[in-house]
Amino acid sequence: MKTIPVGPLSVNCYLSACEQTKKGMIIDPGDQEEIILRYIEREIDIEYIVLTHAHVDHLAATAQLQSKVGGLVCLHSADRFLLENADAQAELFQLRRPDSFTIDIDLKEQHALKIGHYDFQILETPGHSPGGICLYNESSKTCFVGDTLFYESIGRSDLPGGDHDVLVDSIKNKIYTLPGDTILYPGHGPKTDVEHEKTMNPFTTRP
2-205: which CATH architecture? Predict the structure, then answer.
């Protein structure tokens, strides 16, 4: 697993692959596809490009990467309206306008994406956006959480479709039910773990 910060907002793009089968996926290719491509070894077969949500800073390099390395693009259907308004998002935040691409798989709760010997379970975690998802792998005790949760912080909920109470419920009822030593890989900033956030995150520990 490699973490590749990209774009002006330093989005964590992740490359996750099975060492035995050389099957892999790209999570949240927000920008700078040329940098992401440097990390993809020739023998890695990219099966999926997964978008944890459809904010433009997490997807602007999707079309370019799919044309170079293939892979099925995956997104929760509740965020399609954000994808349809990606140009407006880019203009609002002065970010790169993404080229158009097609969603191949609509992600759903309990849907699993198989990467070689690893199954990543989809957890629906709305609040930052209506279709926000996390990807959890039990055997490696890892969870990619997008912008749902950060180190001692949470995602913003003031963008279209966001809801603070729903976001906090998603964190408590989905992420915090995972084993305490599960490593959490967020969309921005450093990694953390479930137990640390349950005890130290002020946005979820306050009454």
Answer: 4-Layer Sandwich (3.60)
